[in-house]
Amino acid sequence: MTASLAERLRAGIVLGAEGYVFELERRGYIKAGPFVPEVVLDYPDAVRELHREFLRAGAEVMVALTYYAHREKLRDVGREGDLEAMNRRAVRIAREVAREGAALVAGNVCNTWAYDPEDPATRDTVRAMYAEQLGWAAEEGVDFVISETNDYLGEALIALEVIQDLGLPAMVTLAPTQPHLTRDGYEYADACRILAAEGAQVVGLNCDRGPRTMVPLIARIRDTVECAVAIQPVPYRTDAIAPTMETLLSPKGERAFPIELDPFTCTRFDMAKFALQARELGVDYIGICCGAGPHHVRAMAEALGREVPASRYSPSMGLHPMFRADVSAKDAAFLPSWNG
Length: 340
Ligand SMILES: [Zn+2]
Hints:
Structural class: alpha/beta
Strand content: 5-15%
Low-confidence stretches: none
Mean pLDDT: 97
Number of helices: 14
Bound molecules: zinc ion
């Protein structure tokens, strides 16, 4: 039997992996701009393969690709009629692959872009969107739900209510696009304290910030709440000048987000170091968001002392013809040019 989320959190760190939308966009299966996961119905094998790659790299949670698979977004791309099929299929695919490695399956909802704290009517719209998505997810069978990239505490609380109405454990994370406050004016740590008090099992941050600018914020949250804390940064080198991936600028001075971020990508070593920092801070759920590749996840898993299926192919540079101790005389002649 697969250990539950609560059991895993009691036993140690849970390693997560996300970033499905960005990675499948790079692979040519999702359109940048709308970022709707049409791939779930159009190329299910591509989704299955990426789940499997993250699983082999050590991810313990297969997150159903229902990010932006909500009514508002599907209407934008003229596929509102596919809403239910897309949501159900995404959970089924995640379940199929999770079974290959005793991983958990998470249902997934995100910010809807429909919420307006100044307009109470939007609360009902958002609730209805979450209720239909998560109702299908619950029927297909998920172990818990991740509500993520929340800009507003108010919208996150609606997701939490819907998740609890379904009797499922909730992990709720905020998108820290601003320096300290959610869009509805709560300090991130305060917002997390409120979510925990309302019954979220795991609270924290995901997306937008790279490790360097997200870790200080999660330290505050760790000090504030008693419950499990999650951190899932983007693997981009954000810093004090450009604290989020949206603020990073290309060499031409243009916004690099979302499809010109490649030069800022963290190496696997950066992400391994991040995983250790997060463990040191007492973070319970350590993952990665938009921009992630399986090599990042494997490096994080191995930094945490795990051997995972993909470790079979982890680097052995001592076997490289040019890096081995006994470089042949013929190949050693290349060394001056390799040394620049
Ligand atoms: Zn993300």
